[in-house]
Amino acid sequence: MRIHVPLNVTYLSDWNGFELPNGILNKGITACGATTVALENRHKTIICCPRINLIVNKHEQYPETLIVTGDVSNRAILDYLSASQLPKILATFDSIPRLATLIEDKSDWRVVVDEYHYILIDSAFKSQVEIAILDAVVQFPYVTYLSATPIAEKFMKEIDHFKKLDYYELVWSSIDHVKVLCEESKSPINAALRIVRDYQSGIFPRIELDGRVIESNECVIFLNSVNNIANIIKQTGLSPEEVNIIVGTSDNNDDIIRKIGNGHTRGRIPLKDEPHKMFTFCTSTAFAGCDFYSKCASTFVISDSNRAHTSIDIATELVQIAGRQRLKENPFRSVLTFIYNVNNGAMSREEYMAIIDNRMRVSISDADFKNSILNTDLRNKYIKETEHYIKIMGF
């Protein structure tokens, strides 16, 4: 079902009477304020988020919400539920099964699964967890699956939880297009070093607007390796006062950043009207759905195909990255520079699709064979072997 957004609506929270639907909602564009609707409406709401940075970013904007992650106790959750007349919970995907057991009466609750396409993306390394999340969510009567880059229909048809859901698409009368400047480089990391050094030297991107020249003296650089971020900071001598490091929450990441020296630590995304540092480095595990409010930042995306996961991960996130700068007064928000390399294994689209189609045929035949086995002991043997293979191979 296509929902036409009124011409005068920039953010969904401005649309009087708009309700998030029960089903899948393709927002059409990023940064349109769909989660704001969920946070400000008059319904008890759980907003499921794929990344902790997104939860923290939203909580800082709405401090009356409760953050639920793995280290939040059941007692703290129950105390909040009993004390709040209109509870708004921001929870990690992994916390949803536990929440579902703690909320006995689910009849008047709504659930918003924000950036729900990460359920499929993350299933590559934690498929059983993602299935548990979907099983927990369906216990609630009203669930909205939100994304501006929804799971492709051909994949949703293969996932039982999505097969019967209503599908809605927002149609916007006016869309701000982001121009992607593609730059092939033998060494994207060296290109990132060049960007940083240019900024350090006062060589900024410039734009002429209404007869005056505006400089972009802040930049946000996206790349999917914390080690690369650390090396760039070391080589350019950036101080903690100059750089904000937005990466996934983990002891390993904190250890890498600590080894940069000079007191560098993992940072946080500034709220609206808070000052921004000249340099912000982000990985894809950190930025999903988060809001940046710089008035002049330029955006750079660095993809190094020599790191296998990066060549896939960061390039497929361009639509999400393009929507992260929220302020329309930032004239540089409409341009994104994508710097990438091509390794010796590059192939044509036709060659690539032929390989994928063959893998699909073999996988389906393998699944059909295993599903046809009637002997219980043999079935259990294949189940254990498959689970072991998933853990070893990471998919």
Q: How would you describe this protein?
A:
This protein has 15 helices and 16 strands. It is of the alpha/beta class and 395 residues long. An 8-stranded parallel beta sheet has the order 1-8-2-7-6-3-5-4, covered by helices on one side. It is globular.
Give a quick precis of the structure.
By secondary structure, the chain is of the alpha/beta class.
Walk across the major sheet and give the strand order: 1-8-2-7-6-3-5-4
CA-based gyration radius:
22 Å
How many DSSP-defined strands? 16
Q: Could you give a short account of the major beta sheet? A: 8 strands, parallel
Terminal residue distance:
34 Å
| Unreliable segments of 5+ consecutive residues | none
Structure classification:
alpha/beta
Helix count?
15
Q: State the helical fraction.
A: 25-40%
Query: What does the average pLDDT come to?
Result: 89
Described by the principal axes of the CA atoms, the overall outline is globular
The share of residues in extended strands comes to: 15-25%
Identify the notable features of this structure and list them briefly.
395 residues; alpha/beta; six-stranded parallel beta sheet; 15 helices; 16 strands; 19% strand
